[in-house]
Amino acid sequence: MQKLMSSCTAMLVGKNATIDGSTIIARDEDAEDGVNPKTFKVFPAKDYTGEHYVSKYNGLTVEMKGQGCRYTATPNGVLDEGRWDEQGINEYNVAMSATETEMTNARVLGHDPLVENGINEDSMVYLVLPLLSLPVKVFNGLDH
């Protein structure tokens, strides 16, 4: 019997790796259930304070706060399964892709198991990207 998987791949190229300083982000969606249309959107900067986010995928609940910046994303065209913002770049040129189907790799899950109702692929970009201005701050000043 053939095992079906949804295994997505992303490619991020930073501005220091391109000749013209462009940031490039690319992603494919290898889903066993066929076409899943996406939309390209630009989300304006806004104050997230008081927003109550609930994931349609796993019930994750987050009380959001803080001023968010403008960012782009490619959410699902049909939102009945949640946002799934896939990838984006914010106004500070921070790029992120967050739907690479980590749950299909047993070796990764053995080292870092998923929390049942923790932050997952459907929510990562929305909860993180608009609130990042300098990724160095997130990683305690590490410069790799």
TrEMBL record:
Protein name: Dipeptidase
UniProt keyword Protease, yes or no: yes
UniProt EC number: 3.4.-.-
Organism encoding this protein: Limosilactobacillus reuteri (Lactobacillus reuteri)
Molecular function (Gene Ontology), one example: cysteine-type exopeptidase activity
Keyword field contains Kinase: no
Family of this protein: Belongs to the peptidase C69 family.
Catalytic activity: an L-aminoacyl-L-amino acid + H2O = 2 an L-alpha-amino acid
Residue spans crossing the bilayer: none
GO terms (BP aspect): proteolysis
Alphabetized UniProt keyword annotations: Dipeptidase, Hydrolase, Protease
